[in-house]
Amino acid sequence: MNNFFSLEHIGLAARDPRALKDWYVKTLDAEVVFAMRQEPPAFLINLGGMLVEIYAAEAAIPETSNNRVAGWRHIALKVASIEEARKRLETRGVVFTESVKPAGGGGRVLFLKDLEGNLLHFTERLPEGFL
């Protein structure tokens, strides 16, 4: 454990911060922790115990969902069952375009995209943890 710092939040620049915040709340049960009422608005949401700041982007690139573009590329959401998580999100309108894949370190992953094409994936680890 690092005693010097701990993770406080990650930032997610959005074309439409309000719509993206709504997607995370509706689709992944995120909770709005704080709303900054300026225009364009910004939000802090709790996404499975991690704070994400959603704020207005100044520019966008078409490669947002390319997992091999340099920089941070995805958020991994740990689930007990990929199949159950997939079914739940399909009822909320999420379309999965890839199949389940092996995870680095053991287990399986399933990628999905948010409203703006940002990558997330479900991670299902083996009971014994990382190999």
Question: What would your notes on this structure say?
Answer:
The chain has 131 residues and is of the alpha/beta class. Helix content is 16%, strand content 33%. The chain folds into two domains: 1-58, Signal recognition particle alu RNA binding heterodimer, srp9/1 (2-Layer Sandwich), CATH 3.30.720; 69-131, Roll (2,3-Dihydroxybiphenyl 1,2-Dioxygenase, domain 1), CATH 3.10.180.10. The protein has two helices and eight strands, in the order E-H-E-E-E-E-H-E-E-E. The strands form two sheets. It has a four-stranded mixed beta sheet, with helices on one face. A hairpin with a 2-residue loop joins strand 3 and strand 4 (50-56).
Structural category is alpha/beta
Number of helices: 2
Uncertain runs with pLDDT below 50, 5 residues or more?
none
Shape: globular
- CATH homolog superfamily of the largest domain: 2,3-Dihydroxybiphenyl 1,2-Dioxygenase, domain 1
Annotated CATH topology of the largest domain: 2,3-Dihydroxybiphenyl 1,2-Dioxygenase, domain 1
Write the H/E string, N to C: EHEEEEHEEE
Roughly what is the average pLDDT, rounded to an integer? Answer: 93
Strand order of the largest sheet: 1-4-3-2
Q: Quaternary arrangement of the chains shown?
A: single chain
Strand content: 25-35%
CATH architecture descriptor name of the largest domain: Roll
Helix content: 10-25%
